[in-house]
Protein 1
Amino acid sequence: MSPTYITFFMTFLLGIMGLAFHRIHLLSALLCLEGMMLALFIALSFWSTQFEMLSYFSLPMFMLTFSACEASMGLALMVATTRTHGSDHLKNLNLLQC
């Protein structure tokens, strides 16, 4: 395995570990998700340049578009949650809590 693949894998794994272990604020969870999406975008861009085919060049752009839509939707949900609940703590977002 080349060092480039190891770097992409470790970046994605760091995002997963941040999402799993640092779950206090909604903003930190959204940043971990965004880091994972950017790692996938870079890996997909690198993969498409390896094959040097024109049909693979549009795939990273679709992923980047979906990542931007995911980030804007997450920030909108965070603003709405902060306005209704008063904070962005994930423990306050449990609707089943008495």
Protein 2
Amino acid sequence: MTKKRVVVTGLATLNPLGKDLESSWENLVAGKSGIGPITRFDASEFSSKIAGEVKDFDPVEYMPVKEARRMDRFVQFAVATGQMVVEHSGLVINDENAGRVAVLLGVGLGGLDTIEVFHTKLMEAGPNKVSPFMIPMLISNMAPGQVSIFTGAKGPNVVFTSACASGTHAIGHAYTEIVMGRCDAAITGGVESTITPMGVSGFTSLKALCSNRNDTPEIASRPFDGERSGFVIGEGSGFLMLESLEHAQARGANIYAEVVGFGSTGDAYHITAPREDADGMARCMKAAIDEAGIAPSDVDVINAHGTSTNLNDKAETLAMKKVFGDHAYKLRISANKSQTGHLLGAAGGMEGVFSCMTLHKGIVPGTANYTSPDPDCDLNYMGSGTEEYQAKYVLSNNFGFGGTNASILFKRFAD
């Protein structure tokens, strides 16, 4: 069979930097921070009191009030972003093509907020006070399910849950579905909203969150920096519209990038820590590069997982050195989490959007707060800020608990 080329024809995101693609990108390249004090609940007794929250989001702008009340916040994000990405792509979904449009999304944890609300009601008022909508509100596959309902897409409808790699796994599998000819287009990416008492306390107990910069939240997320002390929890979404090249060209679509490789591996090592030798991360990156049929030296930008945790940043740096050799020192490495915090299952979606914008705009965002070099993290992390640069390839990495790894390779589109 002839392998189909897959292109990106639409982009949309809700994240701590903005409620749409334009404002998010503008704030990213300007080096602004979306991290601040937690407002979603009273965090005064928590050791980590900061987060990357989506600000001023009103779900009623995208759906009826009645429907919004029956959705967890992550599903509201999904419905809003799904409509935005369809609009941005210009794809009209109708009875003729709906069965060939997939919705494949990544969600890490699902409706934690809904679980907490109804568990409290159960304990305080008994089982008769638990809503019949509780289960449909919290299950992770309701993100692609509701996007399908609101957009009319009737193709494959699946959620991918692989911790912080969820969004990138979703994009990779959407790409694969189109390559195999199972669908012509796919709404894909990641979505998450777990800035809740349980979410924050759980990650705090793991000693994963930054808790020593509550008074200076804008400099708390410090990927690869020698003074990093944990990640900052974030929320949001990032969706891409993928299409086969022939389908996109037939309708005269705008093309923002091409997807040319996908890698997915497992560490078989530990429930939370990456392998110290970075083997799984390295094999994952190399798999995406090999699938594209290029040399590692052809890659010029990495959108790193860059969580601002000691073990992850050290391992990802080692993995890049293993894959790229001396070329690793020539790479431009950007870590978006320095400005947004860690969006967990949505990270790969948002970072996939920003990777495509990097190629489309000819601008590589910098890594904020990289000011204290770490001998174990000695590559070019763009600490000096945004740079105008016409990249040809951007490799986007995401790695998750359980040793799950995903890398997606984007290319600047050329006929």
